[in-house]
Specification:
This protein is an all-alpha fold. It has helices spanning 2-63, 297-300.
């Protein structure tokens, strides 16, 4: 009798467990199907919105619709007319905007990582706090553009036109600015560490407290530039021109200044300790007792201050 009772109990328990497992599996499967259906519907809706945003961008020249916050990532917008468009906060990562007209466009806070803006017209565009990491801006027109606080790390700005552009607090680490025109640009406190500025024009630019550690500024024009309190440690400044530039309290420790022109420059309280000055021209440069010069500098420079 005990054996029969035990068998009955075991059978009942097994049935209960099996039933519970079947019920649980059915509920799990239903929830999974529901989740997959919801995810599919969300993906469909996201794609529909993307298509709608893209069509709005294509129609912009006709109806001037707002494109604020639009998802245009990866889209082909090459040559498109988007002058004065409101693209604030828009997603444009990896988008092709080559030769596009974005003059006076609002791109504040826009996401433009790896975007192609080669030869684009961004004259007087607002790009404050935008993310342009690894973006291609070679030959782009950025004259008078506002790039305050913009992230341009690793961006290609070779030959770009940035005359009078505003770039305070901009991040330009490892950016390529070879041959770029930055005449009169505002680069106060900008970060240009390891940037390539070979042959660029920084005449009259405001570089106060900018960071150029290990940057390549060979053949760069820095005539009348404001470099007060800037950091240029270990930078390559060979053949650069600093005529009449303000280098007050500038840190040039270990910098390569061979054959550079510092004629009439303000070097008061500047640190040129261990700098390479062979062939440098220092005629009429302004030094004081606080200027730290490398040992034997008077014998190695081409002219006397």
């Amino acid at each position: 009798m005990d054996i029969q009772l035990a068998s009955l109990i075991v059978g009942f328990a097994s049935g209960m467990v099996t039933g519970a497992l079947v019920t649980y599996f059915r509920h799990w499967l239903a929830r999974r199907r529901e989740r997959e259906g919801r995810e599919f519907a969300e993906a469909q809706e996201k794609e529909r919105v993307r298509r709608d945003h893209y069509e709005r961008a294509l129609r912009y020249q006709r109806n001037r619709e707002s494109l604020r916050g639009c998802d245009l990532a990866g889209q082909d917008l090459a040559g498109l007319h988007l002058a004065k468009a409101d693209l604030q906060g828009a997603s444009l990562n990896r988008a092709d905007l080559s030769s596009a007209n974005l003059e006076e466009a609002n791109l504040i806070g826009a996401h433009l990582q790896e975007a192609n803006l080669q030869d684009a017209n961004l004259k007087k565009a607002a790009l404050g706090d935008a993310d342009l990491q690894q973006a291609v801006l070679a030959g782009a027109n950025l004259q008078g553009a506002d790039l305050g606080g913009t992230n341009l790390q690793g961006a290609n700005l070779a030959g770009a036109h940035l005359r009078g552009a505003s770039l305070p607090w901009a991040s330009l680490q490892e950016a390529n600015l070879e041959g770029a025109n930055l005449k009169g640009a505002d680069l106060r406190t900008a970060n240009l560490q390891h940037a390539n500025l070979v042959g660029s024009n920084l005449e009259g630019a405001d570089l106060t407290e900018a960071r150029f550690q290990a940057a390549n500024l060979r053949h760069t024009n820095l005539k009348e530039a404001k470099l007060a309190k800037a950091s240029l440690q270990n930078a390559n400044l060979q053949d650069a021109s600093f005529k009449e530039a303000d280098l007050w309290k500038v840190n040039l420790e270990g910098a390569n200044l061979q054959d550079s022109s510092l004629q009439g420059a303000n070097l008061r309280e500047a640190n040129l300790h261990s700098a390479k000055l062979k062939g440098a021209r220092l005629r009429k440069a302004k030094l004081d007792d606080s200027t730290a010069m490398p040992k034997g500098w008077e014998e190695i420079v081409a002219s006397r201050p």
